[in-house]
Design goal:
Helices cover 42% and strands 24% of the residues. The protein has a seven-stranded mixed β-sheet, with helices on both faces. The model has no long low-confidence stretch (mean pLDDT 91).
Length: 199
C-alpha cells in the first residue's frame, strides 16, 4: 500500500514534502531518498514517542530530515509551502477531519497534491469475512503477539467509523481540493485518495 503511494507521489529532487502522522517514517524515508539533498521532507506526528522512533529509523538509514511534533488541525507551516502532503493511516484518528483536510490544503502550493492512505470500506462480497476477521481473529492475534487485544479491537472499530471512499472524497472537495480521485487497494480494505490544490 505504501509502495503504491510512493510510486504515485512522483517525488523529485528539490521538492518540499510534508508527511503528517508519519510515525515510523516509512513514507518520509522513501520521499527523502527521491527528493535528495536539495529536497525538504518533513516528518511530523502529534505523538512524540512515535516521532522519535521515526527520526531514529531515518538516521539509521543515513537520512537527516526535519521533524516536528504538530497537530494536523493546526499545522505550523506557511500557506502554499509544500508540493506534496501525505497522511498514511493517521486521518482516521483525527477528531476534526474537515479541519485537518483544510489545513493540509492550506499548506499546499497551487498545483500541489494531497495524498491520504487509509483503511476504508471493503467490497460488499468480502465484508462478512473481513468483519469476522477484524472483530475475532485480529484482537486474538493482538493478545497473543503483543499482549494487547484492546488496541486491535479499537483498530477494527475505528476503521468502521471512518468515512467511506466517496464520503472522504466529498470531504476533500469541501476542503477546497480539486480533481479528487481514489484508488481501492486489496478490495477496498485500504484506499488511496488524491486531491490537488488549484489555488
Amino acid at each position: 500500500w505504501k509502495t503504491y503511494t510512493v510510486a504515485r507521489a512522483h517525488v523529485s529532487p528539490c521538492m518540499p514534502v510534508l508527511d503528517i502522522a508519519g510515525g515510523t517514517g516509512d513514507l518520509a524515508r522513501a520521499f527523502a531518498k527521491r527528493a535528495g539533498p536539495t529536497g525538504e521532507v518533513w516528518l511530523t506526528d502529534i505523538n512524540t514517542s512515535m516521532l522519535r522512533v521515526g527520526r531514529d529509523r531515518l538516521i539509521d538509514h543515513g537520512l537527516l530530515v526535519p521533524v516536528a511534533v504538530c497537530d494536523a488541525e493546526k499545522l505550523p507551516f506557511p500557506d502554499q509551502y509544500f508540493d506534496l502532503v501525505t497522511v498514511a493511516f493517521g486521518l482516521r484518528n483525527m477528531t476534526r477531519k474537515d479541519r485537518a483536510l483544510a489545513e493540509m490544503r492550506r499548506v499546499l502550493k497551487p498545483g500541489g497534491k494531497l495524498m491520504v492512505l487509509e483503511f476504508s470500506r471493503v467490497a460488499r462480497p468480502i465484508a462478512p469475512v473481513y468483519d469476522w476477521y477484524s472483530f475475532n481473529v485480529l484482537p486474538w492475534l493482538g493478545q497473543k503477539v503483543a499482549g494487547d487485544a484492546h488496541s486491535y479491537r479499537y483498530l477494527a472499530e475505528s476503521i468502521r467509523m471512518h468515512p467511506d471512499q466517496q464520503t472522504l472524497a466529498d470531504m476533500m472537495g469541501k476542503a477546497g481540493l480539486s480533481r479528487v480521485q481514489y484508488f481501492n487497494l486489496t478490495g477496498g480494505i485500504v484506499a488511496l485518495h488524491e486531491g490537488v490544490n488549484l489555488g
